[in-house]
Amino acid sequence: MKDKKEITRRDFFKVMGAAGAATVGLTACGGKENAKSPEGEKTSSAGMTYRTNPKTGDRVSLLGFGMMRLPSVGGRSAREGNEGIDQEMVNRMVDHAIANGVNYFDTSPAYCRGQSEKATGIALSRHPRDSYFIATKLSNFAPSTWSREESLAMYHNSFKQLQVEYIDYLLLHGIGMGRSGMEEYEARYVKNGVLDFLLEERKAGRIRNLGFSYHGDIRVFDYLLSRHDEYQWDFVQIQLNYLDWRYAKQINSNNTNAEYLYNELAKRNIPAVIMEPLLGGRLSNVPDNIVARLKQREPELSVASWAFRYAGSYPDVLTVLSGMTRMEHLQDNLNTYSPLKPLTEEEVVFLHDTATLMMQFDTIPCNDCKYCMPCPYGLDIPAILLHYNKCLNEGNMPQSKQDSHYREARRAYLVGYDRSVPKLRQANHCIGCNQCSPHCPQGIDIPKEMQRIDAYVERLKQETL
Questions:
Q1: How far are the Cα atoms of 102, 241, 320, 382, 414 from residue 420, in angstroms, in the given order?
Q2: Which long-range contacts (CB under 8 A, 24 or more apart) does 344-350 make?
Q3: CA 256 to CA 234: how far, in whole Å?
Q4: Residue 148: in which H helix or E strand, if any?
Q5: Cα dihedral angle (292, 298, 301, 307), rounded to 10 degrees?
Q6: CA nearest neighbour of 381 among 429, 312, 341, 335
Q7: How far apart are CA 256 and CA 215, in angstroms?
Q8: What are 206-244's pLDDT values in tens digits?
Q9: When comparing pLDDT for 1 and 183, which is higher?
């Protein structure tokens, strides 16, 4: 990769093995350090594995705390319902994360119904500023926020909410999202002069690292990398997991396989920040036969830990984000990365074979990002899709009375549907207005899926046993 060539499979395992060997060294726990680590990867006294940003020398924890699914006062993710954020629990989780070596915290003005930045600022401001890195985004998705004035107001408000004088990692949020990715990128960042403004802010030091998060339209990704000599991207956030490595485009034609995205960044020595290592939770809630397959290999490890080890084993990954709602999520991820046990070549092949097995299930590629919400007619779109996927994965999708377990599967689907989705928020209330689909990073035709699921549910209800 240093000579700009695409990383080969052999080179990947060679570098990965060297990185694994480097984790035996100990360095002080903390945030900023100007001197670059020659090995590129270290562990803290708490055991956390770190990666070094090649441009700034930042020693970044391999586990990044995603502030997208912060706990609500009711115990659920604050992205669900209307409950407020449980600030006391957020503080406790942030304290525990920092005490165990985590120093990268990723938020956005759009997360947790607009409350994530404030909660993140409150929790982190209780710690020394040089002990953590804050990443946030210019999340000007709505056309009403595309003007220079509205975009800059959002940018300046992030400083206020986060209680900081500089932002360590700032991203253009959701580049390539929707069906008009290039046109939207130009309207949000180029024609209004916002990108030029952000480049100047980086020169002034108020932004330490500037990058973008990529969703969908490969034309925008390739275009921005073609301008790397001009923009000098410090990092790029991509979706990477063992299912998306080769099957992202097969799952959703609007997406691009992670193998291509990662290699394009590696060629240019641009660090990759990883989102969706669990594919919206789908790789922690896998079919029973996949659970058995993973547990047979590592009975004591969680299903999710395989996905986190996979994402963390790529040497040009700077950090892997995990949106954590409960302390047990945090603890499991700390166990995985303190320190990272890189995958062997045989284990990578095993996971790629596992992905091939999973592709036998025709699930809907919903990542529970909730960008489709709120629905103007009250539907809980992600809950409807996720219940469908769950039943499909578990084999509770009865098709005919001739199925040997038809009665049990029918009951499991219908009872689970009513428990997962309140009746007034179910698929039968969709009128096909299609206000949701343009916001879906996965390109799901949501009204079509709502109609299909509703027809299936109605058939199950009407059939007599």
A1: 33, 27, 29, 10, 10
A2: 344/13, 345/13, 347/297, 347/309, 348/13, 348/310, 348/313, 350/297
A3: 21
A4: helix 148-162
A5: -80
A6: 429
A7: 9
A8: 999 999 999 888 999 999 999 999 999 999 999 999 999
A9: 183
Taking residues 271-289, what's their average pLDDT?
89
Q: β-pairing, 26-27 with 167-175?
A: unpaired
Q: Which residue has the higher pLDDT, 287 or 446?
A: 446
Structure confidence at residue 412 (pLDDT): 86
Q: At 411, phi and psi to the nearest 5?
A: -65, -45
Amino acid occupying residue 103:
N
Greatest Cα pair distance, the chain, in angstroms, is: 71
Asked if the peptide bond before residue 339 counts as cis, ω within 30 degrees of 0, the response is yes
CB 237 within 8 A of CB 171: yes
**Tens digit of each residue's pLDDT (9 = 90 or more) over 162-172:** 999 999 999 99
Per-residue pLDDT tens for 371-386? Answer: 888 899 999 998 898 8
Sign of CA pseudo-dihedral 292, 297, 300, 305:
negative
Phi, then psi, of 174 in degrees rounded to 5: 70, 40
- Paired with 63 in beta bridges are 320
Question: Looking up tokens 């005919």, which residue turns up?
Answer: 400
